[in-house]
Design brief:
Structural class: alpha+beta
Oligomer: single chain
Shape: elongated
Number of strands: 7
Strand content: 15-25%
Order of helices and strands: HHEHHEEEEEE
Helix content: 40-55%
Distance between the termini: 94 Å
Radius of gyration: 30 Å
Strand order of the largest sheet: 1-2-3-6-7
Largest sheet: 5 strands, mixed
Length: 194
Amino acid sequence: MATSRAKNKNNMLYKDTRSGFTIIEVVLVLAIAGLIFLMVFIALPQLQRAQRDTQRRNDIIKLQSAIETFKGNNNGRLPAGKCDVPDSDDPKLGDFTASKDRDNSACRLIKEYMHDNNDASINTFTDPGGQTYDIVIEKYNDAFNAPNQMDHIMHVLTGATCDGELPMKSNNSRDFVIVYRLEGSGVYCHGNNG
């Protein structure tokens, strides 16, 4: 009996050492987990950039709609000028109360047509990153160069149409395009003529 107990004890010891994971198995699981983590770590910023760029495209369509509404309320006249919106943590639009900006139709476009709330002194037309958009509205000329870096300026070019990412001259002076440098996928050109 003593020998069978010793034998059973030896079998139990043998079984106990075989029931765990080997070092190779643990290292393999850690390596796979590390690769998954690395893939998520690399892909996440790209997904976030794409999501912000989608929001910027939606903002461009919102600006196009506001310009169309402006045209409808102003006998077909397109807005003009440049509106540099104050960029700070305070969203108040102090420049809009200055007399020099009251008649600037680009600033009026933002102030009167681009707000989601009832207080026109607060700019809700902001980039997904939190920075306010500036708008430059000018007549198209062949010397226009699309921005080569993201500058938060929406360029509205009148008398133009889109040719892929770049604007080109249109035969209709009422046509306009909005050109904007996206964060992750080049220049976006969106026109009112299709």
